[in-house]
Amino acid sequence: KAKNTGKNRCLIYNKKMREGIINVVAVETDLKRGLNNGEFEAHFQPIVNLSDGSLYGFEALARWNHPERGMVSPGEFIPIAEETGLIVELGEQILDQSCSTMNEWHKQYPEYDHLNIAVNISAKQFVEASLIPKVESILKETGLPPNQLKLEITETVVMTDVVESTNRLNLLKGLGVLLSIDDFGTGYSSMSYLQKFPMDQLKIDLSFVRRMEESTENIEIVRAIINMAHSLRLRVVAEGIETERQRDLLYSLQCDYGQGYLYSKPLPKESAVELLQSMS
Ligand code: C2E
Ligand code: MG
Ligand code: MG
Ligand code: MG
Question: Measured in angstroms, how far is the CA atom of residue 253 from the centroid of ligand 2?
């Protein structure tokens, strides 16, 4: 009987595995088609100065405008794009759209020519040799000044191989772009490495922002992160701000910038333009 159960378990496992593989292959085929069809678009979420609520920049967030499924969120396609290597092409398209859109806005709204655009770089993109020349050529082609592009790389990715990461970050820094550690607090960082990385900014993960209201200890954790970042001369962005209380707390802790639904959800390009128009 025991043998039987084992065998069944094995069958179930194989069936699940097979379904998983079939699903990845199906999504991969669909992703390729979508990439060729230009179905991926950058949406833009405002990032504001916490001191006065003024606009500081935007983060570009990928959306899949799928012909049958409608607007698909990154949670559903980034992991498979990463697994299949298609993230390299996808990331390039988003980077290109982000830089050219920001440069357009600078020209159209000269009062906003200080705004910068943050773009997410995945693990596979980060280790790909083509990333550095690609960023360089996109900046050249779109005309965006390098210091108005910020690349967000997660803490987990930069901590995987700190020697190699330091080299790559220095090469990127050499292009004149800004660098940000994303999802800070969800992985393991050591102060000595943070100090060696040529970072400009640290983004506190939204899970910390959410937990702040639960206890004073959680507030103290956020205070410690902000103070540590400032002592390493990093600017601090808090992501996922949804309430005024969270905003007020973060401001009182001297957090520099904020991003979250309290201000705005990520917006399609046309709505982001309306936002700029309404403010100017
Ligand atoms: P992330 O870079 O940490 O981006 C922040 C996520 O938090 C976004 O989710 C954003 O919509 C969400 N968010 C912002 N404010 C709030 C809030 O107040 N409340 C809540 N609940 N959520 C908020 P999104 O757009 O679903 O993206 C998820 C993740 O997918 C991103 O996390 C990033 O890691 C990845 N991603 C998105 N676009 C790209 C891309 O173009 N390239 C790469 N490599 N990854 C991307
Ligand atoms: Mg990000
Ligand atoms: Mg983040
Ligand atoms: Mg995050």
Answer: 22
CA of 6 to the centre of ligand 1 (A): 41
Per-residue pLDDT of the chain (280 residues; tens, 9 = 90+): 444 445 555 566 677 777 777 788 888 999 999 999 999 999 999 999 999 999 999 999 999 999 999 999 999 999 999 999 999 999 999 999 999 999 999 999 999 999 999 999 999 999 999 999 999 999 999 999 999 999 999 999 999 999 999 999 999 999 999 999 999 998 888 878 888 999 999 999 999 999 999 999 999 999 999 999 999 999 999 999 999 999 999 999 999 999 999 999 999 999 999 999 998 7
Ion ligand 2: residues, Cβ under 5 Å:
120, 152, 182
The pTM score is: 0.93
- 């100090």: which residue's tokens? 195
Closest CA to 102 of 138, 66, 69: 138
C-beta of 46 in contact with ligand 1 (< 6 A): no
Cβ contacts of residue 179 below 8 Å, gap of 6+? 150, 151, 153, 169, 172, 173, 197, 198, 199, 200, 201
